[in-house]
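Appendix B, example 12.
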Amino acid sequence: MPASEFHADLQPATERLGLIERLDEERRAIAAQAVDLSADEIHARPLAATDLSIGRIVKHLAFAEDRWFQHKLLGLDLPEPWRSIDPAEAHDWSFRSADLDSHHTIVVLYEIACHRSREATNACSSMQSLAVYPSFGKKPVNLRWLLAHMIDETSRHSGHIDLIRDALGRPPVR
């Protein structure tokens, strides 16, 4: 990747700023990987070993953003479309239901979820701010853990998208 394409500060002034910039860079990469695809390409599942499509991944990431930032961190009800789904099925539904969505719907859903997540992050006074709800049946995570987790989750799925784009004959976009 040419240095001019990298947007995050290489020497951020604070840990918080560094994590936020890194996560936003990963979010930007996801959006860039999805936006130039055709309707068929976003739903294509060209890898025999998986049911993943780029649309499924992007919609799942929208769910992950809302689940972690809106629900867990802020303690709010999940926004639509997640609110109407049985919570026990929401994870799998976030993947499967993407097949019925338009390219535009998937991309916009992700962009809106990321915007809500940024607002939730801004509402936290410190990196030690605790989520309202516990995670993993244990205790609440703090904002530091959540930002690191979402960097991991988003970058992992970005790698999946790279592989799918390659299988579609489309080079990765950063």
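The mean pLDDT is 93. DSSP finds six helices and no strands in the chain.
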